[in-house]
Amino acid sequence: MKSIVAIRPEPGLSATLAAGRELGLPIEGWPLFEIGPVAWQLPDPDEIDALLIGSALRHAGPEIGAFRGKPVHAVGLATAQFAQEEGFTVASVGERGLQGVLDALAGRDLGLLRLAGAERITLAIPPAIQVTERIVYESAALPMPDGLVARLAKGAVVLMHSAAAARHFVNEVSRLSLAREGIDLAALGPRIIEAAGEGWGSAAFAASPNDKALLALAKDMCH
């Protein structure tokens, strides 16, 4: 059985590792990114009806307290749980990414505050919905450590959580002249696979853009 490698930054890395180990998977964490907060300007709370959020909520800082009375539309269960722990009321939880959350709100007249990272997906905004966007964190790419190079040389299934991660991973593999044929990629979605290019042992995307589906895919791929 091949090892499964997660390269996402903290705090998401620990959550992915814990979920993988609960499933009995041979999973290792080698973060290739480091998250840093970004100063952001609060919009007028009176113009915001609700929050549209993913993992960015974890990096929003104390400023987000001004919106604690607003309902939250969360990208998934992990984000929803964190929002509740922070004192927010969760109005809806998505299963198909932020676009799916937004589509489910179509037809409503809403002003939403979207918290995001510097690298983010462009959303199609339904009519009657206004989205105010704020960047609250950025991700710095890290060089691939020797331990991960050695692991990949033996073959592994690498989890891809974003297109930015795929592009950086590809650059590092090329820089270090690693053979792609022994590396399999399990991604959250097709856009990520496209960013990774070709030449891998195998590459596939999860049935749903969440860790549960991604780990199920990786389990199948590592046998």
Keywords:
six-stranded mixed beta sheet; five-stranded parallel beta sheet; 11 strands; alpha/beta; Rossmann fold; 2 domains; 223 residues; single chain; 7 helices
Describe the fold and architecture.
The N and C termini lie close together (about 5 Å). The longest helix has 13 residues, at about 165-175. Helix 6 links the parallel strand 10 and strand 11 (about 200-205). The relative contact order is 0.18. Helix 5 packs parallel to helix 6. The chain has helices spanning about 10-20, 75-85, 95-105, 145-155, 165-175, 190-195, 210-220; strands at about 5, 25-30, 35, 50-55, 70-75, 90-95, 110-115, 130-140, 155-160, 185, 200-205. By secondary structure, the protein is of the alpha/beta class. About 30% of the residues lie in helices and about 25% in strands. The protein folds into 2 domains: about 5-30 and about 140-220, Rossmann fold, CATH 3.40.50; about 35-140, Rossmann fold (3-Layer(aba) Sandwich), CATH 3.40.50.10090. The strands form 2 sheets. Strands 3-8-7-4-5-6 form a 6-stranded mixed sheet, with helices on both faces. It has a 5-stranded parallel sheet with strand order 2-1-9-10-11, with helices on both faces.
Would you kindly provide a brief summary of this structure?
The chain is of the alpha/beta class and 223 residues long. The protein is 30% helix and 26% strand.
Structural class: alpha/beta
| Radius of gyration, in angstroms, nearest whole number | 18 Å
For the record, the CATH architecture of the largest domain stands as: 3-Layer(aba) Sandwich
Number of helices: 7
Binned, the helix content reads 25-40%
The separation of the N and C termini measures: 5 Å
**Biggest beta-sheet profile:** 6 strands, mixed
Number of strands: 11
Order of helices and strands: EHEEEEHEHEEHEHEHEH
CATH topology term of the largest domain = Rossmann fold
Could you list the spans in which at least 5 consecutive residues all have pLDDT below 50? none
Number of domains: 2
CATH class of the largest domain, please?
Answer: Alpha Beta
Strand arrangement, major sheet: 3-8-7-4-5-6
Q: How would you sum up the global shape?
A: elongated
The average pLDDT score comes to 91
**What is the beta-strand fraction?**
25-35%
